[in-house]
Specification:
By secondary structure, this protein is mostly helical. It is about 60% helix and about 0% strand. The protein has helices spanning about 10-15, 40, 45-90. The radius of gyration is 27 Å and the shape is rod-shaped. The mean pLDDT is about 90.
Length: about 100
């Protein structure tokens, strides 16, 4: 399902089943709990726009967390490589790591 608000033309298209978004053509066509595209039909544009803004903010936060996680994972891998090198050196000298 698209996250775009329905324009006036889209709403007119939606009123002629089957659904132009997903092809749904059964009972409770206008009920969002049965046909999720109907949620967009009933939703005012300002609500859709505020949801888009919230989604954009959530994506920015997610991307920030992803960058942080990637940075931490790279640091962990580097530290593990140092640990492995020290353990190998200890083993070469006949000791137990």
């Amino acid at each position: 399902m698209s996250d775009q608000a329905m324009t006036r033309e889209d709403k007119l298209r939606f009123e002629r089943a089957p659904c132009y978004l997903c092809g749904y053509n059964s009972h409770d066509y206008y009920q969002p709990n049965v046909h999720p595209c109907a949620k967009l039909y009933h939703m005012p544009e300002d609500t859709v726009e505020s949801l888009r803004e919230e989604l954009a903010q959530m994506k920015q936060e997610r991307d920030g967390w992803h960058r942080d996680a990637t940075s931490h994972l790279m640091a962990l891998c580097e530290k593990q490589a140092e640990v492995n090198a020290l353990e190998a050196k200890i083993s070469e000298l006949g000791g137990q790591p």
